Amino acid sequence: MRLSRYFLPLLKETPADATIASHKYMLRAGMIKQNSAGIYSWLPLGFKVLKKIEQIVREEQDKAGAIEMLMPTIQSADLWKETGRYNAYGPEMLRITDRHEREMLYGPTNEDMITDIFRSFVRSYKDLPKNLYHIQWKFRDERRPRFGVMRGREFLMKDAYSFDMSAEDARRSYNKMFLAYLNTYARMGLKAVAMKADTGPIGGDLSHEFIILAETGESEVFCHADLVNMPPPGELDFEADLQPLVNERLALYAATDEMHDAAAFAKIPEDKRLSARGIEVGHIFYFGEKYSEPMGAKVMDKDGKAVTVHMGSYGVGVSRLVGGIIEASHDENGIIWPKEVAPFGAGIINLKVGDEEADKVSEDVYAKLTAAGVDPLYDDKSDRGGVKFSRMDLIGLPYQITVGPRGLKEGIVEVKDRATGKRQNLAPDAAVNFISAQFGVGA
Ligand SMILES: Nc1ncnc2c1ncn2[C@@H]1O[C@H](COP(=O)(O)OP(=O)(O)O)[C@@H](O)[C@H]1O
Ligand SMILES: [Mg+2]
Predict the structure, then answer these.
(1) What is the helix (H) or strand (E) element at residue 171, kind and residue range?
(2) Which listed site, 175, 271, 329, 359, has its alpha carbon 20 to 30 Å from 254?
(3) What angle do CA 178, 247, 159 make, to 5 degrees?
(4) Residue 405: which residues within 8 A CB-CB, separation 6 or more?
């Protein structure tokens, strides 16, 4: 992409209501624009990152055997009345009346709807287990929307729902998601810890929140320090018994404040006791028959007996993750995108647009990186060098290649690693090869 043709409305000043790094940088880097409290437009740069995060979530769900679908944002109140949640949900639910005076709502979650879909079609134990998911916008009329996309009113969530014949089978479905989540966050460069959590209005008795540590996080958490650096499970056979892998993690203490057990925490060696703040980037629940019972979601077992299915639900805060990743990865100059979610792989800074050689080499590097699949952003605008450097640092692309007449006299361009600040001088083709290699793509 050529910057001169892109839409990147940067802000010079930090808006006063933005208090945390991710919110400030997302506004300043032209990633989002607030339309009303907690409701944002995703501008091109922000949208690219959102899509990349969504894709990682999707790939890891698919690997774990979950099946993607799409449910609507607007739901009829009828299903929510069946489960009793229409009254229970409270003012967080945005209630809408259509022209026929029918009660509708903008979905804050989808347990009721997915259970209805399930009961409409599935009759036999032979069709189980099933895990269905979608990645769809949700609306919750939060009392205090804040921190930009971290606590929005409209936000993008991946929500999956599992259906099993028994509590024991449901535990297997739960374990798949538990481990798939750890792989998901690791791919985004995040260190997420699964912590024992309260089940809240969704209900049920087995639940974990996935938390990334950050001082600006809204959750107070307690855990064994070794969990933070524990490597993700990596490639898994999802048909195998996953309980031992899950147990390895559950063996170490980790809980959110609602579930905190001070006595158990005190048993951790003192130097390993971590009491910190964190951002909830995912939440999984096993809630058994809570919705299947009132909605009559039953299937026939082997003996022809009707059995109420056991369910779980599994959420990932896709739009919150954009902010969460920035909280975990930034410096005083701006964002530092992990490679897997960066909006562009590299930025090319032409220091002297109009200079024949600088233009020629920049264009060549741009064409070659594009062909290699690095997806570069070429700063072909005629601003001063200082403006270009700080702009590139702010938007945080993993690599920067600076092309200027002085270096070119010696046949070199400068490659900077945004995360480490490390610079190296390379011939233009060597720079292309180096960067392509970092992304594991061919030049
Ligand atoms: N208001 C919000 N803005 C952005 N993301 C949210 C919001 N509420 C929830 N999420 C994300 O969706 C995930 C699943 O939501 P859930 O656990 O049902 O919500 P809550 O924790 O608010 O009860 C959360 O872990 C979080 O990452
Ligand atoms: Mg939650």
Answers:
(1) helix 167-187
(2) 329
(3) 10
(4) 351, 352, 355, 357, 358
Q: Please provide the average confidence, as pLDDT, over all residues in the chain.
A: 96
What's the pLDDT score for residue 203?
A: 58
DSSP H helices, 230-291, are 243-250, 262-266
Over residues 74-114, the pLDDT tens digits come to 999 999 999 999 999 999 999 999 999 999 999 999 999 99
Mean pLDDT of 389-410: 98
- The pLDDT assigned to 264 comes to 95
E strand or H helix at 349, and its extent? strand 346-350
| Residue 200 CB less than 6 A away from ligand 1 | yes
CA angle 67, 280, 320 (to 5 degrees): 70
Nearest CA to ligand 1 atom 11: 317
The confidence score (pLDDT) of residue 15 equals 87
Is 129 exposed, middle or buried, given 0-12, 13-18 or 19+ CB atoms closer than 10 A?
middle
Task: Find the length of the chain.
Answer: 443
Which of 256, 283, 326 is the pocket-test mutation for ligand 1 (most atoms within 8 Å of CB)? 283
Task: Round the CA-based radius of gyration of the chain to a whole number and report it.
Answer: 24
pLDDT surpasses 60 at 443: no
Q: What is the C-alpha to C-alpha distance for residues 185 and 163, in angstroms, rounded to an integer?
A: 24
Q: Which ligand is nearest to the CA of 152?
A: 1
Contact 32, 26 (CB under 8 A): yes
Q: Is the CB of 378 under 6 A from ligand 1?
A: no
Q: pTM (2 decimals)?
A: 0.97
d(CA 6, CA 38): 26
CA separation (Å) from 314 to 15, 109, 293, 411? 34, 11, 19, 54
